[in-house]
Amino acid sequence: MADEVFDFEKLHTRYRPKIYRYLCRLAGENEAEDLCQEVFVKVERNLTSFRNEAQLSTWLYRIATNSFYDRLRSPSFKQKSKEYPIGIDDNTLEKRDFTTQQQTPGIDQQVIRDEMNACIRGYIDQLPENYRTVLLLSEEEGLKNREIAEILQVSLDNVKIRLHRAKAKLKVSLQGNCDFYLDERSEISCDRKQKRDRE
After folding, report:
1. In this structure, are 23 and 114 located in the same domain?
2. Does residue 90 belong to any structural domain of this protein?
3. pLDDT tens-digit profile of 19-70?
4. Contact (CB, 8 A) for 162 and 130
5. Do 127 and 165 reside in the same domain of the chain?
6. Handedness of CA 187, 18, 65, 3 (dihedral sign)
7. Which helix (H) or strand (E) segment is 189 a member of?
8. Are residues 116 and 74 part of one domain?
9. Has residue 104 been placed in a domain?
10. Residue 165: is it exposed, middle or buried by C-beta count within 10 angstroms (0-12/13-18/19+)?
11. Residue 188 forms part of a structural domain
12. What is the dihedral of CA 134, 85, 33, 69, to 10 degrees?
């Protein structure tokens, strides 16, 4: 395992898809490729100084997150964000159910799930950056609170608070804009509320 950790090519092959997906969700598809390249340039440059004080995956997510925040603060990114709002093309990501992270069967069901997941992702993308980052690391990347605390370099309590607030804000947005119901298969589905219902 030690050999694999310090072999850049193996590391790149193993982790690039995860880091790319994470950056797509954080920064949008337009920025993700450049950011991902930047992350792995930093990784290659600093790999010899990695001392196993943290898990390798935690270290990679920290570099990716910091690279995103650096890009977010840049004037050019702020201008681009106005012109091209953050969002992703579902064709570039795996077709997975946001709630279970599993492949979903059936074309009709898949279309419904894709629409529902896109809707939920839209509301996640509207969360403040610090809440969205924590939620993505927890729910999409499957990281534990302790790992998220290491990545963001904040306390465990801070992670728990942000995660709780992110979920609360997301719940309010979803309840205010979506009608949830059980379909004929007893699975959760939703429809967007009409504008007049929300006013």
Report:
1. no
2. no
3. 999 999 888 888 899 999 999 999 999 888 887 767 889 999 999 999 999 8
4. yes
5. yes
6. positive
7. strand 188-192
8. no
9. yes
10. middle
11. yes
12. -40
Q: Using CA atoms, how far apart are residues 140 and 159, in angstroms rounded to an integer? A: 15
Cβ contact 138:147 at 8 Å: no
Q: Are 97 and 117 in contact (CB under 8 A)?
A: yes
**Concatenated DSSP letters for 124-178?**
HHTS-HHHHHHHIIIIIS---HHHHHHHHT--HHHHHHHHHHHHHHHHHHHHHHE
**Dist CA 15 CA 21 (whole Å):** 10
CATH number at residue 139: 1.10.10.10
Residue 19 DSSP label = H
Residues 81 and 103 placed together within one structural domain of the fold: no
Q: How far apart are CA 38 and CA 69, in angstroms?
A: 13
pLDDT tens digit sequence for 120-138: 888 888 999 999 999 999 9
Shared domain check, 140 and 104 = yes
Same structural domain for residues 113 and 64? Answer: no
pLDDT for 27? 87
Assess whether 119 and 145 both reside in one domain. Answer: yes
Assigned token pair, 80: 């681009």
Which residue segment(s) compose the domain that 75 sits in? Answer: 1-85
For residue 65, the model assigns a pLDDT of: 94
Residues 181 and 109 in one domain: yes
* Tokens read off for 63: 């570099």
Indicate yes or no: pTM above 0.85: no
The whole-number pLDDT of residue 84 equals 45
Using an 8 Å Cβ cutoff, are 12 and 40 in contact?
A: yes
